[in-house]
Protein 1
Amino acid sequence: MGNDVALDVQELKVYYYTYTGVVKAVEGVSFKLGKGETLGLAGESGCGKSTLGFSLMNLVPPPGKIAGGHIYIDGMDIATMPESELRKNVRWKKISMVFQGAMNALTPVYKIGEQLAEPLMIHKGLSKEEAMEEAKNILPKVGLDPAIVNRYPHELSGGMKQRVMIAMALILRPDIVIADEPTTALDVIVQAQILNLLKSLKNEFNISLILISHDLSIMAEVVEKLAIMYAGKMVEIGSSDEMFADPKHPYTQGLLKSIPKLTEKGLHYIPGQPPDLRNPPSGCRFADRCPFVFDKCRREEPPMLKVGDTQYAACWLYE
Amino acid sequence: MYGMGIKDVVREFLRFRGGIVGIFLLLIIVGMALGAPLISDEEAGNRWYDLEYWVEKDLPKGVPPAWVGVFEGRSYSVTERFPGQIPETNRFILRTNITYNMKYDVPPSDVVIRVRIAEEANISATTTYFVRLNVYRPDGTVIERVLDLETVNRDLKISLKSEDRSRNAIISFMKDFDEEGYERIINQGLTEVIDVIYILFSQTGEGALLERTEPLKGIYTFELEIIRTDINLELDSLELLAMGAAHGVFGTDTNGRDIFVGIVWGARVALILGLIVAIVSVLIGVLYGTVSAYLGGWVDEILQRIQEFAISIPLLPLLLILAFYFKPTIWNLILLLIVFSWPGPVKTIRSMALQIREQLYITAAKAVGASTGRIVLRYIFPQILPYTFALVAFAVPGAILTEAGVSFLLGAQGVLEITWGRILSDAQDASAVLTGMWWWVLPPGFMIAISGLAFVLIGTALDRVLNPRLLR
């Protein structure tokens, strides 16, 4: 763990204002990310992990908005900062992102080099030639031939595009990189390569990495700290060693049990559906699916309780 | 479609035959516009509306194109000039004979007599002289006193066709051979409308006055007498002009203007106006639609309501009124057309931009820190650009047609440049359709249609190539 805090999120709320009601996608999430630390953010589809990722750059797609809370980077509050200042001082400079589905994150009409050069031209005011030169320099670091600066995105494979996206995220040497499902659309071998690349680059560039994924097995490979989200809430957080060895929250336990194992027959799953986030139930949001549910769970929302050395869980079982 | 190079577009484009035809037609029009000073006299183009200039050019008035004879199997007379000998004499009567060999199936459209008095003549400005003309025809008949007038004019130019005295003299001459026709002319008051020059050159006999009988070929002798009232009055020149019955590529109008000149120079205005209006208004529309879609929310709402208001303004009546008050040059008209035609592509472009702005790479661009302007211009606009070319091609005919409509309806109150619409308007004013002057109506009409067709064909082919939904 780093000795200093790179990112401090306090009581963050992100709502989507849709025609059918307000969807509370992220509801009161708090956590800290140390410098050089790797945090895994896991949970099932729709739990708000990607939304949380976007909100860290204050880039929630409309009709979504940050509805409350604070995000501190270097003492600046990202949640309340005006758009122009975010653009100039924060996005990509302090915090950058490797998007989910790299296939679509590159503009089809520009060459790879031009797209890599874009942040340099916008933020550092480099000329196109200088920016292209720097783009060529960073490509070997992600294992790509510098010659591909003259290629168009459709000429590259999925893995290559993902590497380009990683290069692009690193090109301004930000403090924090969010990797949103960086391996989702890739085959297993390429997945492993990309994960190893992320790991080594994290050390080389000394960045704090937030890895968003639904796949706990890849988390185990990479992250130092793991956070589990459920229905817009963080239900458990702790060092990955502790979390994997001794998960405390019933939801985390269910998730880990759901990973298929060669030695066991049959697939485990958590019965039921996540609640409707337009009007979430009072009390614990996991109550309806929890095997250990009792009265208090339905009445009161559980706070984060310390359950281990580094581990906190939001569950009344540990009161 | 995205990432298609210029070469690919050209190759795909050439697969559509319509596009090739369109390019061919466009090349013809562009050739006309660029080559106007070479193809026709530049001065003629610049002074199209200066009717005195055209009178000086001595072109026959309201005659068909020179090539019609080929199709009809008849020879049309051509314009010929005959200078008359100025007799050296001290007598008051100056007489000269001009012979004209009428060997054509269609006789001249007019005979013009021109008399110039020497300037240095030591005479008073009010000194008059008489001009008389007798015509000796090949069949031995004589038409006497075709002209008989007193004048002070030092540069006299008389068209026999429009001179009352000549008309009456010729009709009276033929009266002896065609009593019945003469009766009808008198009873129905046709003296003013019948073609007396044709009668002058036609065979005598029944029906000669009204039925355009066979022309009489042979040598005509025009006996011209100048009777001076002062012996000091000297002649500078005498001239007889047999005006052709056909002229040029597209004939002439009733003012003696060569319609081909008008068509060629009109191509410039049509192309300049069509292209400028189309390019500028489509670009404005495309940027407007893109910005509206990208910004979204209430900005989008307001921009869309403005666009709907603008597009529902009835263009033509408003243009007519504005064009009338602004005394339009072509540039004023271009400005007005742009002001009213930019909303056209907005809705389509907005719907395309709405799709594009949801793409991940737009979010990525935002995350990278690109400003709104940069995202609109560098990320969304290039995706729409290919389709914009097709839109431009489609917008050109609209602009040309609207200009033609405005020019046609406003006529002399309209634009000051030569436009096909204005030529049509002049034709309408001269009842060209009723009097059978098709060469005055069809060429400008066809040019308007062809220029529209060229761009539509190109636009359709481009659309097929560049619009992803239509390609295969």
Protein 2
Amino acid sequence: MTPLQIIFLITSVGILGSALMVVTTRNLVHAALWLVVSLFGVAVLYVMLSAAFLAVAQVVIYIGAIAILMIFAIMLTRRVAKDSGPQTNPNWTWAVVVAAALFGGLTWLLSSWNGFSTPIPELSSRADPLSQLGQALVSPNAYVLPFEVASVLLLSALIGAIMVAWDRRSG
Amino acid sequence: MFTGGFDPVNILAILPEISLIVLGLLILGLDLALPEERRGILGWVTAGGLVLIIGLALAISRPGSEPILLWGGMLRHDWLGFAFKIVFLFAAAITALFSMDLFDSGRRGEYFLLLLAATLGMNLMASAADLIMLYLAIETTSIPLYILAGFLTKDDKSTESGFKYFLFGAFTSAVMLYGFSLLYGFGGTTNLYGLSQAFLEGGLSIGAILGSLLLILVGFGFKVSAVPFHFWAPDVYEGSPTPIAGFLSTASKAAGFAVLARVMLAVFPSIAVEWGAIVAALATATMTIGNIIALAQKNIKRLLAYSSIAHAGYALIGIVAISYLGVASTVFYLIAYVITNLLAFGIVALFGRVAGSDDIAAYAGMSRRSPWLALGMMVALLSLSGMPPFGGFVVKFAVFAAAIQAGMVWLAFIGVINSIVALYYYLTILKYVYLYRSEDEDKPLPVSRPYAIGLTVLSLLVILIGTVFAPWFSVASSAAAAIFR
């Protein structure tokens, strides 16, 4: 086993374990903190794949902004940050069966692919993924159109969020 | 890196989309500038602007006979995308007209902006040729629609409907995105036509491709509300504002079909037999279950929801045929279906607002209250059930013909049986409208001007498609030619 594989296994256990804690813990603030751990694990995975920019973006956006915003939202909106209702419903056995079947199916599907056992190719040290990414995002022969559409999507989501949250009578 | 000249055709091809954004910003500006009592004109501006954009698109953005990839392979400028774009713009214009009476005051600007954003997403869905573009387009369509479905925040049913739509949509699009990521991993490219090449070259097991195809089908099945991904449709249609329910059941569904046809036929020709069987099973289940559950409905919006599920099944038949005629018949079917269902939902919206009820029993005596409205209802329902001389007849004929040409007589047979079942519940509504009496017969049904314009245009188009169908079919054929080239 290579060192990279060992780090991957540790990280995956960390991600999955903390993700499980997010949905099982009864305290909402704890759930948000476990989410931070899980998201940080994903950032580690990006680093292992030599995607440095994605890793930084993951930390800054998901951990720095979204998770912190969630914690603030929990603090400001709920008086009791604890959930006392039942955590499962009668269908949970079916959910387990479906999830297990899906996991087995996807594992089988991926293991039938010859890329499954290929080691990660080394990036050449002269490659500069960040400037390539920057150029790809603004080049009309690459991704400028999705880039611009994303801004329209964000604008309409923003307006929609204001619309849903803002009560005109009290505003 | 990423060099190459910039052809002005790139801009011309997305001129309708650019104009949609400009129109949206104009609406937003007017919403700020106009005093509250004059904001009623925003609906007219939206509808008029959309009609202008349709004219602009027809005059300038028409694709040539040869499809071309633009914007670095993000979009494919062809007749399939273009025909659907015109349908979406038209449906949005009609929806804007029908939405004008929805509110007493305020909050109109956001509504029309979100409608335009969703239309923009649909336009891009129809011509996207890259997984990244496709996913963004689907989200640009869905997110404004989630909000529009829950737009009446004071109404519990509308809020529930918006939230339910959001949960289903988020879940299915996550599954679909996972399928996209597998496709990218297997094929090594995000371009649909590049993926098709990679899969045809071989070296990948059928199981791997088929597995990712199934994941993608979850997302597409949700968009077109095919069984077993249909559970959201009746609840969402019932709760959301009726013009939005009409928009969801027509344009949003047609956008799903545009993507389905392009992705299935362009990316997966190497496993056509396998996915043909899967989609045939989906079509059979969708038609049958939609129609059978529709029989028991008491609320007209729920009934139309189940009927629109069944119609997705009929339209799938054309895709199952995997042929030139098949795709042409599906496009033709969707053109007629969009117009007819908009008409039905428009009348339901008008009636529901005046009479305050969406129960089928409330339609008793409608022909005495407003003969013209009742006539419109009859045109819509008879066309939906596939009666000549209305649009629904010729298009059903076309999809069944495609199935028979592809050697799937059994599928056409199931379709015909289902149409007969469907005739029963459509006629039940007409029975209430024409034969039953009620105490409210002397109360008139006032038809406001936007509704009068919208309903007249739609009724005439339904009859026009059913009688003069050659030009419509030739458009659908050019759309099909764009795929099989």
Protein 3
Amino acid sequence: MSASAGAASAGQALRRRIAPNQLLIVLGAVFVSVNAIALSVISPAYRFALLIGPIWLLLSIGGEWWLNRKAPNRDIWLFPVVMIMAGWGTLAIYRLLPDFGERQLIWLILGAGVLMAFASLRQLIALLRGYRYLILLSGILLLVTTILFGTNPSGAPGAPALWLSLGIFYVQPSELLKIMLVAFVASYCAEQYPHLRGSLSSVSASNWRIAPRLAGPLLVMWGICVVLLIWQRDLGTAILFFVVFALMLYVTSGLNRILVISAGLILVAGVVAYLVYGVVRLRIDIWWNPWLDPDNTAYQIVQSLQSIAAGGLFGQGIGQGSPYFVPVAHSDFILAAIGEEWGFLGIGTALCLLALVVTRAFRLATGQPGNPFRALLATGLGLVIGVQTVLIAAGVTKILPLTGVTLPFFSYGGSSLIVMFAAAGLLINLSASHAGSTHAISD
Amino acid sequence: MPFLTEIRRLTLGMVACFGAIIVAAAYWGWVVAPALLSRDDNPRLIEAETRIDRGRILDRHGRVLAESIPDNDRFIRRYAEASTAGLIGYYSLRYGTAGLELMFDSTLRGDSAEALTLNALIHQPIRGSDVLLTLDLDIQQALFRSMSGSRGAAFVISVPDGSILAAVSVPSFDPNLIDLEFDALRVASEQPLFNRALQGRYQPGSVNQTALIIGALLQETPLDFPNDGATMPVVLQDMSIGCSVRLPDIPLDLRESYAFACPQAFVTLGTTLGEPVVESLTQILQHLASVTLTSGTDTSAVTSTLSASIPDSSFEAVILGQNGRTVTPLGMALLAAAVANDGLAPYPAIVQQIVDPNGMPAPDPTRQPGIPVTTATTARRLQDLMRFNVVNGAAQNAGRPSLDIGGHAALAQTGARQDAWFIGFVTLGGRQAVAIAIVLEDTNDVGLAADIAGATLSAAQQSLALTN
């Protein structure tokens, strides 16, 4: 046997022994541990960083073991990729604000538990479909409760009251609403799908009339988003909900005009909001030209861009840059912090990991023949992650105005992280029980 | 599969969005990164600056004049005392750098390629080199103390090596408080931030007589021919220019006129010497005024608003040092040094040694050759004339027992006011001497200038005697 043939056979043997998910866990463990050690030696303030690596590894190995037992046929990419992102995010937050990082580590542990639960509850998908109106009602109740009793943990006067206080901690209902919305819309559209597709076939391409069963929910959803925008000044969540809903409706109906009309509605709402609301006007103005007032109103976006610039290709290294100059770098602007300390390669890698989750969700959706609910649910979950990423990442890089949403899996926030883990758990659940499964067909 | 087409389009759209964001990140992180990072509103610039362990500035005996003190993860610049502020200047994150801090900024910051690369790679703080000055803190303090309450500048130079032993600009300021007081200092009527020693240009007035007397000595013009009306003032336009001290109407020869800086005899001398000779003599002063502490830096572009020249380009104005040509305190100190050094003005040096962060001294900088001003014989005769001035003339206050001091005290008209000058030297044995030039603004008290010089030269003699 030649040397090259021997090496090739050894490579094949290695690939047989180490599955991609195991390799990702190893790579993730190395990445998280090396960065945690590097951070811990910088300053005594970072001494607890050494805990992040072992805890992350324990969660990852434990999660793989659990999922191997409960969901052996799952998409093996999702869990390790999600864990790498969440571990990376925890490190970045800990580097910026050690107190917040410690809390994020607790949310990471809880989130991993939620993922396990959502991934392994066999009846969960069926329940989401069966109780869609209860889910919708709960969602609306949550929204109303937040409008009435919402608060802001910072206590800053005038800050958006998007949280509900549960005594020792706060939850952000709009995060929970994301999954509820996707579940409801997927269920509704799956039921209406034959009619919607039927209306398509009966209408010529030049006819822009839309059936009431299509226009109705579109306008209701637009109305809910406008309520979010007016009462809560939550621009990001309002846009996210509407875009996700519109795209799910597009997938269901196959009508390109849905995209055009939705874009028009966003434009109308945007113009009106620009004229009526100072916060929207400010965000658009500083997006258009941040250099007019870089030390005041546009400070955040200017610092974000300078943070990315300071990172260059390889970044300054963890703990070596100055990402703390970017206000709320641990939350909405964590991508800028990643850019400064891990460079362009860090931003590219983070976006590729997120894109991998989104494309795996879409791939999962296309692998659900004969089950439109499961296909639409997977699509919707992928859209929530993808659209939210695009909104904040495009805002941080000045492609779009800032909308104030978190970067999935990376940003600080218990509600956000747990909901994203729940979405990942649902995707794993869907992947584990899709093709040929009687359980899947019965949903 | 009913949704296949739409989901594929969504996938493509989503990948395109992610791609656009990556392109944008590359744009901000690479293409425009240098421009973004060099903006004034980039706080990283200030942060990086505070992390530089700026080198120390030391006097000739190794006493610390300025150093950077660690404070958490940054450094704060501290100055030993205010007497050196006029020369050393200040280093402020908010208001920039001035004086020697500016002149040796790159050395003090450690801006070597190796240091910058090391910092970029492993984020170690840059340590700058120490600058060991020729300055003598004892002489500096003595000069500063003597000049307190006045406005003006002074230089003390070691002969024959040209080392700057002291340089003072008053009124001064506390560089440790520059961030707090800068705005008030900037608008203060006495302009304490204006560095009179390094940047001030003054009307020479009767101090120009030293150049003219060099001409007289070179042409062997008799100095003992009495002039009637020598103490009478010369009227130039509407300005009356008289002796340095009030004298009765008595005849004085040229030596006595020089001793009291009376102008009448020098107008006659200038006319006798002729315009080309007087022009060449004033050119010597102009050449000395162009000399700066750093070769290649020409401070002639910096103009002082402190001295207003008389807009009279007549030959008489040239003789009296009252035309548009100004001189510097350093240039006049070099003239005095040339007199003490047999006619050769030593090239001034302010740095004795530069020591890198590892304690390794940099190679000694090449000393510039001296500037020939006159012949050795002329210089020695001029020394005697200056000694006579201290014994019998307006420079009497400079005299100190057992010290060989020579000098010339003179006035310069600056429009509505006068400046008092003193240039002189003290010999230390052998070829060693110390030269001094002092200018006090808005005063006709040449006795004060002479007294300050005497005290400073005495301190210099003591300090250098201890050193040797």
Protein 4
Amino acid sequence: MIRSTFASLTLANRALVSQQLALDITAHNIANANTDGFTRQAAEMIASIPFTIVGTTPARPQHQLGTGVQVANIKRFRDGFVDLQFRKEQQLLGQWESSHTAIERLEGSLNELSTEGLAGSLSRFWNDWSALANSPESQASRKALAENALTLTTQMNNRHRTWETMQRDLDRQLALRVQDINNLTTRIARLNDQIVRIVGAVDQPNDLRDQRDTLIDDLAKIVNISYIEGANGAVTISIGGRTAVFSDQSFALTVQADPTNPDGFNQVMWHDAFRLEQTPPLDLDPVSISSGQLFGDIYARDTVIARALQSLQELGATLITRVNEAHALGFGLNNETGLLFFEGTGADDITVSEIITGDLDNIAAASSQSSPGDGSNALLIHDIQRELTMNNASATMEDFFAGLVAEIGISRQQAHGMQQNERLLSSQLSQLRQSIGGVSLDEEATNLIRFQHAYNAAARLVTTFDEMLDRIINMGIVGR
Amino acid sequence: MVRVTDRLLVDKLLSSLQSNTQRFDRFQEQVATGRRILRPSDDPTGAVTSLLIRSNDTDLAQSQLNLDLAEGWLNATDVALQDLSTIIQRVRELAVQGASETLSANETDALANEVDHLLDHAMQMANTRYGDRFIFGGFNTRTTPFEFLDSAKTDWQYNGDNGEIQRAVAPGIKLTINTTGDRVFPQVFDVLIGVRDDLRAHNQEALSLDRLGELETVHDDVLDGLLGQVGSKGTRLDLTRAQLSALRLNNANVLSQVEEVDMSEAIIRLNAQQSALQASLATGARIVQASLIEFLR
């Protein structure tokens, strides 16, 4: 075949268009240098299909003549494996961040490194009994005891209430996080739809993919997910082994009061309108949660805070039982006996009995009748603090409470350490991601110059071809 | 090779600034409060140690107070018993005088009257109070322990009981601090009444044969024995007091070691951290500036 006279112009045009496209992509990268989740793009230029022309010698009957450049693809710099790793770390980061926040709050509510804490009140309470033994006849020491006992019980009630509030806050947060998940899965499904259409039209929806990847990153932080991208470009996401996004469909989650949870807290379930519409409504399936912020919240709510509450409750219960037992055996100034000092069943409702606060003579300091000077029962009650009343008779109340404080401290320390660790790993992976797909302005500036020069040179080609064509077209006057 | 991008530089800068600031804040907090442990997670073991020590110290402080009050009670007992001892010695002198045949009836009656006064005095001692409490009545601290049944003071009665008043003078250690009056006063009253009546009856024989011996028994066996007990309890309190002080001093030392920050170390660290923070701020300023764009014209 003989090459067309104008083929060179077409070649120059393709070069111009391609370089301009590359310049546009560079501009797009620069513009998005600070866009979250943006991945740098590049024009993948290839030499266009060569043109076969008739050879110039018999030994070479034909030649392959280059036809210039074309942009085969706009490439996105992304490594799926790094993404996978990053999201795995995001799940753990989310988990430890949310549980750390909760435990930090729990720890903040303790005020045990001063004498104002619960431990301080407890030891003041015991001391008051030995002070009472110094002057069992005196109203002053009875009053001091009753007042400090009230401070102690109020402090216990408050502590219990604060911790319960923290649990309820976490429970509410669970519902909010589920809303976030639903929102994310809906948006991912919508993006799936758009991406599938563009991929179907044999194109590269790079920016939509970036958006979708960002949403998947966010989702991974909230809950444990696994995902796979199909050939059509749609990503299928499952949460705890069950599909949450498939093609353009998403499946919502919901929260429901857990019948097995003693406090009636929420658990996360798969929403199913059909089952809910039945009378009576059918049971929903629970979501299996193993990491992410959701897991961190549930862990803090049902393990860390619940355990602290249980310990506090146990401490209150033992205090009530032991003090009451000992108190009932003693005699008051008015010879009353068999009276209980505390009312209530645990830390949540412990209070000083009204019989005691109503008449301080009812405080049983004496071990025998008509013995105003006898403080031996008060001393017996004072000694309860040294009894091994907790943990199957292996710890005093004070040891037990100190253990609780240590446990909370260690939990926080652990959560803090894990959080720092995960932050480090996440940021390393994020840096790796940045290193692959991030925009380097220096690089883009260099590309800008590179493509600009190429564009200028291609423009120069057009001028040259123009001059050549001019020669040919105006040949008639050659030699005139 | 790692491809370094602008975002990466900024992210790294921000995260190192963040961690430097956090550390700076932590040392700053330590220096400002002078404490190493501000929350249990700073050092869970240390936090528990300090919690237990603090409550142990509260117990010790209360014990010190209890001990001081117990000592006051013992001192009051000691004073009363010493007085009683003086009374008995005086009565003995009077009995010795009364037993001699040379005295006139009037003179013997005068002796009897003095013994009668001393009997009143002994009754006062028996009803000694510490604060508003009677110390010789056992648990019955609010009723007068001893009283004469008639104006002639020929008979008396004990209104107290044999209750042993205990005080917690050290954690886990209880000490009986009272001496019940029935251990000494009945003998004292009986012998004093006997001496007085014998003097009034001019019964020199009974005085020299019985009363002098009885007085000696009361004084040497009963009273000296009780005084000895009170004294040894006082010694025990002194020892315990020294022990309590030593324990509290030790607590204070441990507490300061566990809780308090080594100031010079903390300040040096704070300064080092400040330099690090300034250095990262300075590099940050340069990183953000350096760009090829600046050089393209």
